[in-house]
Amino acid sequence: MVSNSPARLMARGPEPQNAFLRVRDLAKRYVRGGLWRERAVEAVRGVDFEIAAGQTLALVGESGSGKSTVARCVARLEKPDAGQIWIGDTDIARLSLGALLPWRTHVQMIFQDAVTSMNPRFTAAEVVEEPLLIMGQDEALRREAVRKSMKEVGLPLDWIERSVLQFSGGQRQRLAIARALIVCPKLLVLDEALTGLDLSTRGQIANLLLDLQATHSLTYLLISHDPVLVGRMADAIAVMAGGRIVEIGSTAEVMTVPKHAETIRLLKSARAVQTNLAAITGAFG
Predict the structure, then answer these.
(1) Is 102 helix (H, G, I), strand (E, B) or coil?
(2) What is the distance between the alpha carbons of residues 110 and 77, in angstroms, rounded to a whole number?
């Protein structure tokens, strides 16, 4: 199922020399229900994957398949109940909150709605510099880093004192990317980060992320339901259903010769949506 190309996601087995992230037997459960009746929900079960340094793996699946839970565990916003998350020779899944602090700069997460992760009373500069402020960075160095990071994501420097509420959705995503970049991460977890943007803005942000990846040798874990975006950005695709990965392979393999019924269903559904959008666009010319 998985090709032997060294520049793509590797199958479980002999560990590649250039694997940046290795996830093994990841599991996460939640207890849900009311006062009188509770039930355990296995959100993620036995998930395994690897991402080579500088590459992109897309996790796809229907809502509730477990892909966002995997993303939150990899970013250690949630602690997995079982399994391992290896970055180099360190399993960050088992680290205490105190021991985890130095690793926070290595892995940064960008969410779908950037404004929900920003203080609405902050200026652009305050949003972007916040991670460095938490780290105790000198003010002069923080301000210099903010200017560099904002320029790199294509935001005008004369906007630096604007309120975040004055930015559009696409501009806020650029702010979120700038904030992530300011700590020089190695892995970006993109959880539906381009969802909700118009097609033109989505394409611009995708191009920005690809440029940044090439410039900084970033590794991406991309959570998305957009096959066009996945086909454009990902080196490999892992399809999730019921908390498990049911198919994994290179982007070309998965999108042109899908093997699992869930993959086939997702691709058919995505193509139907694209056809309908094309028809609507044509009708309103």
Answers:
(1) helix
(2) 12
Reported as half-sphere exposure (CB side, CA atoms, 13 A), residue 270 has a value of 18
Q: d(Cα 11, Cα 18) in Å, to the nearest integer?
A: 13
- Residues shown for the chain: 285
* Residue 232 three-state SS: helix
Residues 6+ apart with CB under 8 A from 77: 109
Domain boundaries, the chain: 107-184
d(CA 191, CA 66) in angstroms, rounded, equals 12
Res. 102: pLDDT tops 90: no
pLDDT at position 59 over 80: yes
Question: Rounded to an integer, what distance in angstroms lies between the CA atom of residue 282 and that of residue 285?
Answer: 5
- CB count in 10 Å sphere of residue 187: 19
The answer, as to whether pTM is greater than 0.85, is: yes
Q: Is the pLDDT of residue 2 over 50?
A: no
DSSP secondary structure of 170-199: HHHHHHHHHHHHTT--SEEEEESTTTTS-H
CB contact at 8 A, 91 and 85: yes
List Cα–Cα distances, 220 to 52, 177, 233, in angstroms: 10, 13, 9
Average pLDDT over residues 114-140: 87
- The H or E element spanning position 236 is strand 236-241
Give the pLDDT band of residue 36 (cuts 50, 70, 90): low
- Per the DSSP assignment, residues forming a β-bridge with 47 are 26
